[in-house]
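Figure 2 data, in text form.
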Amino acid sequence: MTTLLFRDDAYAKSCTAKVTGVNDRGGIILDQTVFYATAGGQPGDKGALISNGNSIAIATTVYDEHKNVVHIPAEGQQLPAVGDTVMAELDWGHRSRIMRCHTMMHLLCAAVPFAVTGSAITEDGGRIDFDIPEGQIPDRTALSDRINGWIREDHPVTTRWITDEELDANPELVRTMFVKPPRGTGKVRLVLIGADGSVDLQPCGGTHVKSTGEIGEIAVDKIQNKGKINRRIRLVLANP
């Protein structure tokens, strides 16, 4: 399986890697990568692979059925050969905005204490669908004030690992109703916002900024009714 360098350092912009496979659709598999593959509502990274002086544009990144990270080249690219050494370089502007938006979504989750039914992240914001009972939908102004307050307080964002057994013993950590944290390695990564997770604490495999102050000011764009149990709240970066 591909070694996921972004899990330990989300700020690593590049790495050297060896091509271990090229699938029948032209997807490139490396022995290690800084590219995040589409998962958990976070889009895959884009950027380039530099091989023998040739720059291969990567349009997005996904997982294959074996959980290897597959770098999807833009059309018309010259593909590397298995065994080639490449330099994997992120489109850092895209990644840094995604990191800000993903951490912003954790703050939204902390501010709205209801089960999550779905989510998605974009370069300029994101949305979470909550199972919110009638009469308990948050006020837009109060919600934005609370989240911007946490941002101004510049809380640290850190990670730590727990075992599958520890997660099973603390089911309240999982806020999502239909999507569960990835299993199979015997451990699960937690993302903590604030000292010891005082603002938010939940399993997450995505990329995040180091402190809430890096997010910048946000705004509550929409609060919508999306079905019997779905209330969709969308946030945007005020300065994307």
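Caption note: Residues 127 and 234 are 4 Å apart (CA to CA).
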